[in-house]
Amino acid sequence: MGKKIAVLVTDMVEDSEYTEPVKAYKEAGHEIVNIEKEKGKTVKGKHGDAVITIDESIDNAKVENYDALLIPGGFSPDILRADDRFVQFVKDFMDSKKPVFAICHGPQLLITAKALEGKTATGYKSIRVDMEYAGAHYKDEEVVVSDNQLVTSRTPDDIPAFNRESLKLLQ
């Protein structure tokens, strides 16, 4: 049976870090729900390849309605982490012990949510020190799985491994 996956996304997302995991999850039978500030809004990737319709407002999104969370990278996570509603959603998701998938700059939302303490994780090299200050044990590897809950990767080159490990946690 397919799982329902929340995706926190806004303009300037890294296109392939959204499109490729979403494609893999849908092909595996999972449902995707794009969440931003305004339902019905259209957001665009930083390269213009991803055009995303928002399915749900963050004001109506509840962690208990989802089985997993995807946080694609690009500038999107940095924009979203300035809004406490997204930060709280991520914190609540981590606290719920449900699967969370964050790639590239995606862990910025986890940093702001103070949800990386004691976790083994990776992310884009420019946020490594931030992740370490947040209490993460940083590993420079294509994919890192922590506590059978958190899947992180560094760059678009890591997407095949990221998708593989994410899909394992969705089984």
From TrEMBL:
InterPro entries: C56_PfpI-like, Class_I_gatase-like, DJ-1/PfpI
Record-linked Gene3D superfamilies: 3.40.50.880
SUPFAM superfamilies: Class I glutamine amidotransferase-like (SSF52317)
Residue ranges occupied by any DJ-1/PfpI domain in the UniProt entry: 3-168
Protein family membership: Belongs to the peptidase C56 family.
Protein name from the UniProt record: General stress protein 18
